[in-house]
Amino acid sequence: MIEPGTALSLIAAHGIALVAPLALVEGPIVTIIAAWLAQRDLLDLRAVVAVVVLADLVGDALVYAAGRMGGDRVARLLRLRPARVEALALRLRQNAGRLLIGAKLTHAAGAAVLFAAGAARVPFGWFMLCNTAATLPKSLAFVALGWWAGESYDRIGAWILPVSIALILTAGTALLLARRRCP
Fold first, then answer.
1. For labelling, which of 5, 99, 157, 180 has a CA lying 20 to 30 Å from the CA of 85?
2. Cα torsion at 5, 141, 105, 94 (round to 10°)?
3. Which residues contact 99 (CB under 8 A, 6 or more apart)?
């Protein structure tokens, strides 16, 4: 993970050209910092939005490709039977839109679901459409947060992961409770 202060120094020194590779590695905090710098007229806001959305989608495509190429090896390492893997892949393909968008919006579960989508051979076009649908509002929310509260980038960076994990736990608990109540 990139330290927020390091990201700030690098982006301030090298501009928008450095936002894309940094956003590929650590999107949310880089987006917040870049938007804050745009608010201070050090970067162009339209360029920030375009670059962080594109970097996020490229990063997602890379994780999908890793799952597509290495999903079988991971399944063997986890000692999953082929029949179980195919059953899981079928369920993922059937619910891909909901799973991809939900995982992407929670941030913490994103990479695992993106990898699994590749391993399950979710059609790439559908994968990218779902990711774009989730990436746009998520990236714009981080841009807005950076624009209005970017000077607090260090504190914001510290709570992104805990809030994401809390969202996953809350959603998981709600799903379990709903399943128990519905026959």
1. 180
2. -140
3. 92, 113, 117
| Contact between residue 45 and residue 38 where contact means Cβ atoms under 8 Å apart | yes
**Tokens describing residue 85:** 């893997």
- pLDDT recorded at residue 123: 93
Element (H, E) at 157: helix 153-181
Q: Quick check: 91 and 120 in contact, CB under 8 A?
A: no
What is the DSSP-derived secondary structure letter of residue 152?
G
Task: Give the residue among 145, 126, 133, 124 at the shortest CA–CA distance from 104.
Answer: 133
Q: For residues 18, 111, 175 and 140, what is the CA-based torsion angle, rounded to 10 degrees?
A: 20
Burial 70-97 (b: 16+ CB within 10 A, else e): ebeeebeeeeeeeeebeeebeebeeebe
Q: For 81-94, write each residue's pLDDT tens digit.
A: 677 667 777 877 88
pLDDT digits (tens, 9 = 90+) for 144-178: 988 887 666 555 555 555 655 565 566 556 555 55
